[in-house]
Amino acid sequence: MTPRPRVVIAGAGFGGLTCARALKNAPVDVLLVDRNNYHLFTPLLYQVASAVLDPGEIARPVRQLIRPLRNADFLLANVTSVDFEQRQLLTDHGPLPYDYLVLASGSQSDYFGNASLAQHAFGLKELDEGLAVRNRILMRFEEARWTVDRERRRTLLTFAVVGGGPTGVEMAGALAELTRLVLSKDYRDLDLDLVRVVLLEAAGWLLGTFAEPLREAARRSLESKGVEVLLKAKVANVTASSILLADGHEIPASTVIWTAGVRASEVGGDLGLPLGRQGRVQVLPTLQVNGHPEVFVIGDLAGAVDGGAQLPMLIPVAMQEGRHVAATIRDVLRGYGATNFLYKDPGIMATIGRNSAVAQLGPIRLTGFLGWLMWLFVHLINVISFRSRLIVLVNWAWDYLFYDRPIRLILRAADEKAPRPK
Amino acid sequence: MTPRPRVVIAGAGFGGLTCARALKNAPVDVLLVDRNNYHLFTPLLYQVASAVLDPGEIARPVRQLIRPLRNADFLLANVTSVDFEQRQLLTDHGPLPYDYLVLASGSQSDYFGNASLAQHAFGLKELDEGLAVRNRILMRFEEARWTVDRERRRTLLTFAVVGGGPTGVEMAGALAELTRLVLSKDYRDLDLDLVRVVLLEAAGWLLGTFAEPLREAARRSLESKGVEVLLKAKVANVTASSILLADGHEIPASTVIWTAGVRASEVGGDLGLPLGRQGRVQVLPTLQVNGHPEVFVIGDLAGAVDGGAQLPMLIPVAMQEGRHVAATIRDVLRGYGATNFLYKDPGIMATIGRNSAVAQLGPIRLTGFLGWLMWLFVHLINVISFRSRLIVLVNWAWDYLFYDRPIRLILRAADEKAPRPK
What we know:
Strand order of the largest sheet of chain A: 5-2-1-9-21-20
Largest interface: A-B, 66 and 66 residues
Largest sheet of chain A: 6 strands, mixed
Oligomer: homodimer
Structural class of chain A: alpha/beta
Radius of gyration of chain A: 22 Å
Low-confidence stretches of chain A: 418-422
Number of strands of chain A: 26
């Protein structure tokens, strides 16, 4: 029996996982490689950061997800590069030979070389970043409760979210509700009118990818929840206690969450392949790498072009690309050629705390409560397991009915056998 | 209006929290001090370590728990000592003046001065330790999956639990089931007959505080689940890959969980008060400190004596002592004297994985499935909030019906703004 072709997939996010699933029952052996042992449901990461959900509710072990596939295995490793000639994916766990390679390493926060941002601002891309933001927010309230100086209290209680895209809008909305609806009950002796949630956006509008009326609806909804929306506000420098804007304006703030810049994973730069905007790897319309038809790039890492522009870094793009590549591999194994990828836009949505969201689904545009119901429905059916769905629903209902956030824990690091503090 | 007497309670565990609650509506101001912002439901910590529950399901924010009290506030701080003359609790947040002081700082793992244990073994007392154990166990399986050398695989897959008390028994049982029922499905290509779960106990029996037939039932139940029970096994030294016993026997193992020694929190030693066994502070029968009637010590930190022996380090002891001290403070404020504390033993129980537990409730002794139902009932009604109860029930039912552990995530540390790895 000749060995079956080996498909190595780097990255167990939405692109890589979807590709592995679409290869179920194909005559190949699939190896998924990721530096985490879990798949993260990123659309709800801001709910970990804002103390609604626990990590176990938005992340699933990769091994559990690939159990039904039978032809797939998993390796926990960091990808360093690719040896295209030897057909090996290079990792800190050694080289992994492949017959077909799917690169799906995703994206990371981009601070545009601003060292002060990298040092002081929190990204919101990874599960541990969500936990770190949660810890920071709760710590700042604890500190403020016992701080005598009023100006210092105001600085401690000012939370700045940079970036007016969906992540920034959702984080700012959730943060405003956390402080006004939930923490106000925990800190009865604290002057909570000092709390500021500021959303900073360099452009003249929020949610640039949405239609103009939805942008406005989102801004009004955020402001009604107490978020200060600052447009045309470009961040120049951040310190431990302030944000300096490009126009010289300064905002005292001791917590900065950065959602304004994203670039492709660093793996892309180590491949020796031509890169497009945001460091994304240029691919053929078939999602193959030029000159290496057995190598595919998908998701945020790929700079697939549609109508002259790169496709946005969105989950539906990654999933559709993953499915397309799986179909291409099946076709090639049957002797057919690769076909071009065509993106079908299912629409976009963003939620602004409880009761409000904006959704743009082709000709349909929803705002407010109706948009929120649509958001709830789409996210609940997409949270990956039935168990998570039940638990997420319990937590959401709890939050909704009792204005309470279940997970307000300041967790210390769970280090690999760290010495206990004395 | 004269200021109300100030009661400072050091520790928001079962003793301190119960005391604060029992002071509800008393004419005092209560300040709870703890180095964590949460109260931990320690009896289920082993379920975090064995990937059944998430931290948010066994820990509740202290501020949420004291909300209904109205006369209580919370401070996140480390207690360093007490200035009995000035009547101040000394913390890293400055001195806190008190009229009445309740010391309830609990206990910690005791490695009996064995540096190799302190370096290589995991304690199981704190929430972050539970997460660290979970990370370690899952990491070892990932490593073993891709390790070629069979002896090395066996070492990676050998998990030793030291200490045959309830914590050790529960951890060993849960670990055996995790590996045999759950991880076996995740690692189909791994020779899982290499997995060893070893429970080491220095005495000649498990569960020394239980009646003899229950000890035997627990041992049989563990062995039927695949746990190797080694009695009269005293640990002399631990390395990264082995355990050396006092009799010269060596067990290759790369994960050691230490539940065999517990001593009072270090705060006890810094007070200048006489200490009893396990570093516990000696108290009068009223739980007062000799010479300082306004200072009380309760819970694991206190060496309250009943019938010549110190009371065990158990939750019911801490809670009853907390209630007693609250009643004493109320009495003293009304001009009455302090009364002696009398412990009412409600019984003890320990669970051994699914379907099996031992319970000793006065004359009633339960084993097996009946004991397990009793354990389930007692723990479920005692998990603190209604929301937790629902979610814990969902997770338990999931585990029970599908032999699945929901929370198999290897989480990296959520450091306070740690630089991202490149």
